[in-house]
Amino acid sequence: MSQFDQVINRKKTDSVKWDYTKRIFGVEDVLPMWVADMDFQAPEEVIDALHTRVDHGIFGYTMPGSKMEDAVTNWLKSRHSWEIDPKTITYSPGIVTAISMAIHAFTTSEDKIVVQPPVYYPFFEIAQKHKREVLYNQLLLNENFRYEIDFIDLEEKLSDERTKLFILCNPHNPSGRVWSKEELTKIGNLCIKHNVLIISDDIHSDLLLFGNQYTPIASIQKDIANQTITCIAPSKTFNLAGLQASILLIPNDSLKRRYNEVQQLFGVMGINTLGADAMQAAYEQGSNWLDELIQYLQENVLLIEEYLMNHLPQVKIMRPESTYLVWIDVRSLNKSDKELQELLLNKGKLALHIGSKFGENGEGFLRMNIACPKETLLDGLNRLKIALT
Ligand SMILES: Cc1ncc(COP(=O)(O)O)c(C=O)c1O
Predict the structure, then answer these.
(1) Distance CA 67, CA 88 (A)
(2) Which atom from ligand 1 is nearest to the alpha carbon of 94?
(3) Average pLDDT, the chain
(4) What is the DSSP string of 7-52?
(5) Is the C-beta atom of 377 inside 6 A of ligand 1?
(6) Residue span of the structural domain in which 86 resides
(7) Each residue of 324-358: pLDDT tens digit?
(8) Count of CB atoms within 10 A of residue 97's CB?
(9) In the structure, what pLDDT confidence band is assigned to residue 269 with cuts at 50, 70 and 90?
(10) Do both 370 and 355 map to the same domain?
(11) pLDDT tens digits, one per residue of 121-158
């Protein structure tokens, strides 16, 4: 039995996923497989590091030092063969916070921001909240049922003289695509040509499935790195989202200075003490645990594929190349997203994210979080079947 088979009750822990379905979906007693955190305990080494800090009992201001820099740089080198200068590191509580502050730092209300839907919805929602105009470079489905980038449309949008920022999701949520070096080189060069800053949200980059390789866009060329802010975090990788500890890598000094000014403006400096300890322990000691997790997630993907083939053959998934979010194609059922949501919640008693939340071209898809024990996953799949048949 795997450590990930253990079913742990998360109800009544103020979990957004488990305790807030009434507030978010309007119903209770549904199995939550929506928001992107895992139903697994963090690595033992991380829990031990937290115990040590808690036992010390003093939780004053914390600023990570050289041990953290070593942990981060070694992690990126050993897992992704990416050598970074520790001077490029800036800390942030979360990635959404970081993206929001970067929008404030590097754009004005006259500017436009490009995103690639279907995509993690806060990208466009935050841009809109900042009153920036959002341009949608829709991803296209190819004949192999994978998303591809429409580069002609992308260049058109980047070449708009008011476009100042492009938000990349690599690997891509919700589809799990890990963009290839060729694709990223093309994106990077287009952004250089049209002088558009890149925010690359690489929060899912450690969760690589089925042998897929992640290329950080900032690792490709120096000129691309100089125009890129890369966001990474241990939060998805090790299930630490509630501890609020993330990292930005900004190799361009003047961009880093400007970003740090905005951090000061909002008083969002540093990270919380427990988050810092957890991050350091995870990057220093979490590698074996992550390998086991990846193995388990791959088994879960195969389990879904087999289940759907046997019980719901009209529905198929886009096999994820990374992360634990599965993009399920239910277009053959010819139901609106509203009807699908109604069936899922009230007939199947299952809470998923509906595709159109990620952009119009997500309509007819569902996003299921499979980072849970197989027993829970099977329960979710049975509920999906009840909802859709
Ligand atoms: C692509 C992406 N970016 C950012 C986040 C959230 O990051 P944070 O909790 O650090 O704001 C998520 C969470 O699902 C995500 O999928």
Answers:
(1) 15
(2) 10
(3) 97
(4) ----TTTT-HHHH-HHHHHS-SS-EE--SS--SSPPPHHHHHHHHH
(5) no
(6) 60-285
(7) 999 999 999 999 999 999 999 999 999 999 999 99
(8) 16
(9) confident
(10) yes
(11) 999 999 999 999 999 999 999 999 999 999 999 999 99
Residue 172: pLDDT above 90? yes
Q: pLDDT band for 270, please (50, 70, 90 cuts).
A: confident
C-beta of 322 in contact with ligand 1 (< 6 A): no
d(CA 173, CA 158): 21
CATH classification at residue 321: 3.90.1150.10
- 152 plus 19 within the same structural domain: no
Q: 120 CB under 6 A from ligand 1? A: yes
Q: What is the pLDDT of residues 104-123, one digit of tens each?
A: 999 999 999 999 999 999 99
Domain boundary among 263, 285, 307: 285
* Contact (Cβ atoms closer than 8 angstroms) between residue 117 and residue 356: no
- Tell me the CA–centroid distance for residue 84 and ligand 1, in Å: 22
Same domain, 146 and 262: yes
Q: Kindly give the number of the ligand 1 atom that is closest to the alpha carbon of 35.
A: 14
3-state secondary structure (DSSP) of residue 130:
coil
Question: Is position 322 within any domain?
Answer: yes
Residue 50 within any structural domain of the chain: no
> Whole-angstrom Cα distance, residue 173 to residue 207?
12
Q: What is the pLDDT of residues 39-48, one digit of tens each?
A: 999 999 999 9
Matching residue, tokens 């890598």 = 249
